Amino acid sequence: MNYYPFHLGDYAAHTGHLEPMEDLAYRRLLDVYYMREGALPADIQVTAKLVRLRSCAADVESVLNEFFVLTEDGWRHQRCEREIEKMQDKQAKARASAQASVNSRRAKAERTLDESPTDVERSLVVSQTDVELPTPTPTPTPINTTPPEGGVSRKRSAATTAARPDDVPEPVWQDFQRLRREKRAPLTDTALAGVRREAEKAGVPLEAAIAYCCEAGWQGFNAGWYADRTRSPGAAGRAPPAHKFAGAARAIWGADTPEKETIDV
Fold it and tell me: What secondary structure does DSSP assign to 8-57, as a single string?
């Protein structure tokens, strides 16, 4: 072992009576003992040679007789034996933990390989699929089922979107449809009928009502809201004439907007 704990207090308490050469011999004997991880040779001369103190063999023998025990295997030291046993036990646990980690990763890799189909199995699945599944009947007209913006399919939108009334110009109608899509409110026949009904209540043409919705950001027209929005403090509760927004629509979306009969309120 390349490391062992050295307690200065314990060492000083047990070796304060040693001569300098004896102290040097004891330190070197400990180093060699831990490096060998076992007993020192029983022959004094051999042990003295191991610690490079052949000329001081008497000092080496004195230290061995005081701090070591001579056994059949050689000179042993009880404190060194305990430290070596701790170190070997720690190393054994570390090796076992590392081996368990390796085995776990290996088992996981083997399970992954077992669960994944081989090239032959994948070919077999493809072949069986080709044989068992019937050939789809081609359709003359492909149907695009990808939902457009807003999450409503084109087929459903075509079935539920109201047709443009004749009294509403195309640019105004397109802007209103775009506004409804942004608010996720499809413009159905029922919704258009409600807009027309509220426009009649407010006494404005449908074109002007829809144009005002586009201007105000409303998804629907409400006669009460319209009256509140268009009433000025000096107007004494009177709404502006209907041709105001019809003219604004023609100015915004083009002069080709058909002229509408104005209604004085």
Answer: HHHHHHHHTT--HHHHHHHHHHHHHHHHHTSPBPSSHHHHHHHTT-GGGH
